[in-house]
Amino acid sequence: MRDALLNLKRHATLLGSYFAQYAKVRVSYRGDFFISAATSMAATIFSLGFVFVLFKRVPTLSNWRMEEVVFLYGFSLIPFGLFNIFSLNLYEFGATYIMEGKFDRVLLRPLSSLFQVVFDAFRIESLQEVVVGLVVVIWASRRLHYPWHALDVLLLAFFALCGGLIYISVFLFLSTFSFWFEDRIGIHPPFWNLLAFGRYPLSIYSSYIQFLLSWIIPFGFATFYPASRLLGHTEFRIYAPLIPLVAAATFALAVTSWRIGLRRYSSTGS
Prior knowledge:
The protein has 270 residues and is an all-alpha fold.
C-alpha cells in the first residue's frame, strides 16, 4: 500500500512538472496561443448557438425543454474539454510515435510508456471549453430554478471526471490499433463525429443509435446519463450508478489493449 501511494505521488509530481513545462513553452508564443484559444472559443459558442436556433422552430425536443438541452450541452463541454486537454498525442500516436519512431525513445525511459504518451503534450486552450461549459450550466440551472446542493456540486464534478475518462479511454483504445495497423490518420475520425450525438437527448435517436452510444461506444454515459441524473429525469435514473462502472471498465479495456499492443510492438529500426 505504501509503495502504491509513493508511486502515485511520484506520477502526480511528474504530471505537474510535465504540465508546467509544456504550459511555459506554449504560452511563450502568446499571440499564437491567444488566437488559438479565441478561435476554439468562437467555435464552441457557435455550435452552442445552434441549440437556440433549433428551439426557435420547436418548443421541445423529445420532452426536453430548451433550458434542459442547454444544460446538457453545457455539461457535455466539461468532460469534452478535459478530454481535449489530454488527447493531443492520442490523435498523433500512429503518425508520430509509431511511424516516425518516437515511441522507441519513450520505451528507453524508466517510466510508464502510457503515462509519457498521454501527458507529454497538452491542448491548454481547451480549458475554455470547461469554463464555457460551467457558465452555460449555471445559466441553464438558474433558468430552471435548479436547487444546487453540496451533493449536486460533487456529483457534477464526479460525473465530469468520469465522462472525461470515458472519452480518453475510448480514443486510447482506438490509438492502440496503430500497434497493428500503421497509418497516419488512424481510425479516430468516424468516432470523433459521434461525440456530437452525446450533446443532445439520446431519446431523439433510434433504438439502434441509443444502444450504440450506451453499450458499444459509451459516449452516452459521458454526458447524457449524468446530465439526466442532475436534472432529475427519472426515466434514466437507473443508469446513474453505472456511470463510474462504465468509466472504469472502458479504461481497463483501453489499458489492456495498450499492454497487448506494447508486447506486439517492434522498433522501426531507424
